[in-house]
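Re: that chain you flagged

S.,

Sorry for the slow reply, it's been a week of failed gels. I finally had a moment to sit down with the sequence you sent. For the record, here it is as I used it:
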Amino acid sequence: MNSMRRRVTTVATAALAGSVLAACGAGQNNDDDSDASLIVGTTDKVVSIDPAGSYDNGSMAVQTQVYQYLLNFPAGSTELTPDAAEKCDFEEPTVYVCTMKSGLKFGNGNELTASDVAFSFQRIVDINDPNGPASLLGAMKKVEARDDTTVAFTLAAPNDQTFAQVLVTSAGPIVDEETYPADKLLDDDAAVEANAFSGPYTIGEYKKNELAEFKVNPDYDGTYGEPKSDVTMRYYADSNNLKLDVEKGDIDVAYRSLTPTDIDSLKKSDDVTVHTGPGGELRYIVFNLKTMPGDDDAQKQAVRQATAYLVNRDEISSEVYKGTYTPAYSAVPEGQVGATEAFKDKYGDAPDPAAAKKVLDDAGVSTPVELNLQWNPDHYGGSSDHEYQAVKRQLEEGGLFTVNLQSTEWNTYSEERVKDAYPAFQLGWFPDFPDPDNYLTPFFAPNNFLQSHYEDDAMTKLLDEQRVDADAASREAKLAEAQEMVADQVPILPLLTGAQVAVAGKDVQGVSDTLDPSFKFRFASLSK
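Prediction finished late last night. Pasting the structure tokens below so you have them in one place:
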């Protein structure tokens, strides 16, 4: 997500945040621990509460708490479980049908019916926002409400092996058709005021990317059960302040993103616990195939392949991230079904300047290649600057590249990257669901999340075929072929993969329960 898939600083608003938090009792000791409110801190940023306008971890963190989905993953599990739906199954090979629970309603009192579900999915496709999750719905040909309790999805291909999991992703939140416009996004303040939420929480006080107050929704009937605590999310501009506040007990949980040095330091603290969960985060460089250096497609591919020969992932892993991230040699990270090491197989596991020079010379590319490389200082953790200084040094060593590093804060970054402003740029990805397809289709299918002008008919065909292949061995072979194509074409350059990390006070329970392969951080699991 997530990865595919996004500035008012916390420090500047500390007085305001403190007064609000004191008013709601968050962070204070309470004799009845079951009623104690919690404060969660993060450096992630929200692009949009509206599901049609966001496809990023910061927005997903809010959506997970306030919206219902047809299906969902319980804490600690990757088994699909009914949420707003009573049941879902294939009626025909290309028709997937969900029957809704009765009596569901939004926080504003409006009924939640199959019509809202069909509306929710269709508006994502119709709006097709460049920061939205429309690419996840490429397999959906049509969605319709047959009646108040039945919604039917007509799929492009029979026996789709991934569509049920798509219902749990950024494309899956159910919105109120009487509140959300069909043809444009609803801004955050209007969404909060409308209170059209049916998830475990509703939102009280809200100041975008400063704080969000999540109040237990007593009418929620879904996968997560009854939430144990109200939660306030506090947003940080600086991970150093996030680390200091969780260590001092000013917040209860720090989730995304502390620096490797901070994590290492906090492991030695007697006041907090460092919780780790299954990996799957992918960090990578995206090339805009339209604006990157090169006079034609062959030269552009040569430039991309040269970068693959020159990067030193081991150095970045050990020196910048102290092993909290490990080298990634494929678009599908190690540990996922069907993962290969296609980049290691093609380019080796150590820099090869001679091979990089040859591929550039063979394509007639003049050197040094001037590459503008954009990175983000406030979304992917405090070590991004060191990571990209290392990438710059590695690419420039030997004189084949001149790298111009530039940085932009996330809200601007997420808008400009889809407007062809960056020839090459940093992204990170948390998967929407635990399947290798989610590292491939959102990146390389038509109308993909990257918006990098990559589209290849052979890749599209391969992705479509693996998605409906019920034979495990055959599907893995197709996944391997797709990874080999990525390594040859290099539309992205995978760098690192890492585990999920959250740091919490000793009195906080439930953190490890929600750090599971579904990659959903559920406030409903947390308590003191």
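What I noticed first: The first helix runs from residue 14 to 24.

Talk soon,
D.
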